[in-house]
Design brief:
By secondary structure, the protein is mainly alpha-helical. It folds into three domains: 35 residues; 68 residues; 58 residues. Helix 2 runs parallel beside helix 4, helix 4 runs antiparallel to helix 5 and helix 8 runs antiparallel to helix 9. The longest helix has 28 residues.
């Protein structure tokens, strides 16, 4: 019968920890190797700018580089923006709908601009503090709903009734 001494415990612990520490970076390195390189920053910036209303350019760029769909540009100071968010804050329904059809990530700001009242209500019911949340460039939900025009009229009225600023 073997007695586990302090010395044996330390050796076992050190060996076990070493295996765990060396195994994790190897697994991480393997998954990182499977990803293509980061997209060129200027390409991302160009796509995000196109998302502000240039549907033909969005289509062309996405055909050439599908990875742009959810690519995010940092304007500085934590002001991050995707193409669909650019479409959302200027009211470009055609760009937003096209990007959504391609699988872009929807958010509450885009939903407000598109007049997706039930989506906005569901999110604000679950997370009421979102009524004052800021999207790209610090623009709030009311701005996005206002940019949605007649299609977002009910959403705008709902946000105003909640005291959204």
């Amino acid at each position: 019968m073997s007695i586990l001494t302090r010395k044996k415990f330390i050796r076992l612990f050190a060996f076990g920890s070493g295996v765990m520490v060396t195994a994790q970076p190897a697994a991480f390195a393997q998954s990182a190797q499977q990803k293509p390189p980061a997209l060129p920053p200027e390409l991302v910036k160009e796509f995000v700018i196109a998302g502000h209303g240039n549907l033909e350019k969005v289509k062309q760029m996405l055909d050439k580089e599908p990875g742009l769909l959810n690519a995010c540009w940092d304007w500085g100071g934590g002001d991050f923006e995707t193409a669909i968010e650019g479409a959302g804050h200027i009211g470009s329904r055609d760009c937003a709908n096209y990007l959504l059809q391609q699988g872009a990530r929807m958010n509450i700001f885009c939903a407000a601009m598109l007049g997706q009242l039930e989506v906005v209500k569901a999110l604000l019911t679950a997370y009421p503090q979102l009524k004052t949340s800021r999207g790209p460039h610090g623009l709030q939900l009311l701005h996005h709903a206002a940019k949605g025009g007649d299609d977002a009229r009910e959403t705008l009225a709902y946000l105003q009734s909640l005291g959204a600023s």
